[in-house]
Specification:
The structure holds two protein chains of two kinds. Chain A has a domain of 211 residues: MetI-like fold. Helix content of chain A is 71%, strand content 0%. Chain A has 16 helices and no strands. In chain A, helix 3 crosses helix 15. Chain A is globular and about 75 Å long. By secondary structure, chain B is an all-alpha fold. Chain B has 13 helices and two strands, in the order H-E-E-H-H-H-H-H-H-H-H-H-H-H-H. In chain B, strand 1 and strand 2 form a beta hairpin. In chain B, helix 2 crosses helix 13 and helix 3 packs antiparallel against helix 10. Chain B is globular, with a radius of gyration of 24 Å. The chains are: A mainly alpha, B mainly alpha. Chains A and B meet through helix 1, helix 6, helix 7, helix 8 and helix 9 of A and helix 1, helix 4, helix 5, helix 7 and helix 10 of B.
Chain lengths: 308, 292
């Protein structure tokens, strides 16, 4: 493009228009979650909240489970427990517990992925492991077959292992899904470290574990961060596994609990207020990651597509 | 024990967690999905060999063909939408100009949001009567006098509504792939085309796009493979409705397995999805290896 021409006005006009279009849904959700019900549900939408309220966040975060259950019981005291449970579910429940559950699963996935992929990548690069190339091919094999086509046998497997409705089951499945990208990234990271560093450390009598933690890993931090960010992305954003493998309200994941809010609708404005607030709550951790670790995000997310 | 021996053992020890995970949570389910698809799975008792019965049951099921057809229609409509936006933003971000890094990070922003969250967000934007998109559409005269526009009324309008969300959410990934391809094109080509007096559009059409072909193919395959796995966006936004007109293959599989408890046919559906995706990924990897 030539400089000092009207082209540049067009260039920035188009770009800023696109920026507005991209940002708008997020901005709209954010302001909706702070609007008072009367301002939220109106035929004349306002483009910034005139009256801020935290009531939806308060509602979804501090939802008092017992209190709600008692309210339902006093309403129709002779109905069976099952009915109370289902009614309670329809009205939507707090997202505090699901938020913590999702955080546990994400943290577990990140930690386990880093451990497994670091050791795996190290063994398949630096060490003289037998059958190295065969093992590496095996580890990246899942790229060819996305996990979504294996949900039925996976469900069967978790059931046989007694891991349905458990966070451990989800963590193991996410970690297994992370193996191709994780081992690949760590292998690349270790490959770029000169082998003389390890030899020096060995002469000093360091153990292999010591070499990994004090010599190799500090040099492999970009790879490590990419793996971490992508493990977070995969586990925090998962829906289908959480939906199928978890079936009790105590263990439910954040994304699934929002569905209960979306389905419930005794009070229209509370539903949309809660849903927008819930969406913001679920977006917040990942956007914080994105803000600080953006380049690793891009690398991880596209790396998952363009491996090899 | 010699040093080499020891190192080999340590190596095997270190790679074993990955291999165990892989064997239990990938290889075993992979083999088992074929085994399951050839057996009948009663709620109680042992599985029984039924040969191809599950596949026959599945192929005779009209819901399978409907979901297959819908999945293909969805794939064929959303792929061009994603591609046009991705190519446009990639070309914009590849210009040598101030602010491209900022624009790129904004265009990539919706990608990091989960499909589920994006669906909830757009559910509110599309909300009957009070959704801001509905409001805008009515403002421009859609929906008639009565102002009762509802995008979820028909299968077609539901699909386009979801397509718009997916385009917003997902074009960032393809944009990044295309930018990587654009950056690999050497400046000489542009200079040569400038010397020959080509206009900007001629340059894009005759120089950029042909050289970008490998990245374009990769982006398209990715989008197709992703669309065939579509689940969250439809489960959350349309719930398969109205009257099952927006049910995807994966949704049908999940229904079959966990609503009707027909594990055998569900497993055979999984095998079908696996084969489709396997073929696509093989093409994708071949494209990638050939050109980079």
């Amino acid at each position: 493009m030539r400089r000092y021409s009207s082209d540049w006005y067009w260039y920035y006009a188009i770009n800023y228009t696109l920026v507005i279009i991209i940002i708008f849904p997020i901005y709209w959700t954010l302001i909706s979650s702070f609007k008072k019900p009367s301002e939220l549900i109106t035929s004349e939408p306002t483009f910034y909240p005139h009256d801020l309220t935290l009531q939806y966040y308060d509602q979804i975060w501090n939802f008092d489970r017992l209190k709600r259950l008692q309210d339902t019981e006093t309403e129709d005291s002779d109905s069976a427990g099952v009915e109370i449970e289902s009614k309670f579910r329809l009205d939507g429940e707090g997202v505090k517990r699901p938020f913590i559950n999702s955080a546990i699963v994400s943290a577990g996935t990140i930690i386990l992925t880093i451990i497994v992929c670091t050791f795996g990548g190290y063994a398949l690069t630096v060490l003289k492991t037998p059958l190295k190339n065969f093992f590496f091919l095996l580890v990246i094999l899942p790229i060819l077959i996305p996990g979504i086509s294996l949900i039925i046998p996976l469900y069967k497997l978790l059931k046989d292992l007694g891991l349905t409705n458990s966070h451990l089951g989800l963590i193991l499945i996410h970690t297994c899904g992370m193996l191709p990208l994780g081992v690949f990234m760590m292998r690349n990271a270790f490959n770029s470290i000169p082998s003389s560093l390890r030899e020096v450390a060995m002469l000093e009598g360091s153990s292999e574990l010591k070499i990994i933690t004090s010599v190799m890993l500090p040099l492999a931090i970009p790879g490590l961060l990419t793996v971490m960010v992508f493990a977070m992305y995969v586990s925090w954003n998962d829906y289908i596994y959480a939906f199928i493998f978890i079936n009790s309200p105590e263990n439910t994941m954040l994304n699934i609990s929002l569905m209960k809010i979306a389905l419930g609708g005794s009070q229209f404005e509370m539903k949309w207020g809660s849903l927008t607030a819930g969406s913001i709550v679920s977006f917040l951790p990942i956007i914080i990651f994105y803000t600080f670790l953006q380049q690793y995000f891009v690398r991880g997310v596209t790396g998952s597509a363009v491996k090899e | 024990m010699s040093r080499l021996r020891k190192e080999q053992l340590v190596g095997l020890l270190m790679v074993s967690p990955a291999l165990i995970l892989l064997a239990v949570f990938f290889l075993y389910p992979l083999v088992n999905s074929f085994y399951m698809s050839f057996h009948k799975w009663p709620l109680f008792g042992k599985p029984k060999w039924v040969g191809l019965d599950n596949y026959i049951f599945m192929f005779q099921d009209e819901r399978f063909w409907e979901s297959l057809k819908f999945t293909f229609v969805y794939t064929l409509t959303v792929t061009p939408m994603l591609f046009v936006v991705a190519l446009g933003t990639a070309l914009l971000c590849n210009a040598k100009a101030w602010g491209t890094t900022f624009f790129r990070s904004i265009y990539f922003l919706p990608v990091v949001m989960s499909f589920a969250t994006a669906s909830y967000v757009w559910l509110w934007l599309y909300s009957e009567m009070y959704g801001v998109i509905i409001y805008a559409l009515e403002f421009f005269g859609f929906g008639g006098e009565k102002k009762n526009l509802n995008v979820w009324k028909t299968g077609t309008s539901s699909m386009w509504a979801v397509n718009a969300m997916v385009t917003w959410k997902f074009s960032g990934i393809q944009m990044i792939i295309l930018i990587a391809g654009l950056q690999a094109i050497r400046d000489d080509y542009y200079e040569a085309s400038k010397l020959m007096g080509a206009s900007r559009w001629q340059t894009i059409w005759n120089v950029t796009l042909p050289l970008l072909r490998p990245s374009i193919a990769l982006a398209l395959i990715l989008s197709i493979a992703g669309s065939i796995q579509a689940y969250e966006q439809f489960v959350i936004m349309t719930r398969g409705g109205p009257s099952n007109s927006t049910k995807t293959l994966v949704m049908h599989t999940v229904d079959m397995g966990f609503d009707y408890f027909k594990l055998g046919p569900a497993a055979s559906l999984g095998v079908i999805i696996m084969i489709i995706l396997f073929v696509l990924t093989v093409i994708q990897l071949r494209l990638f290896r050939k050109n980079y």
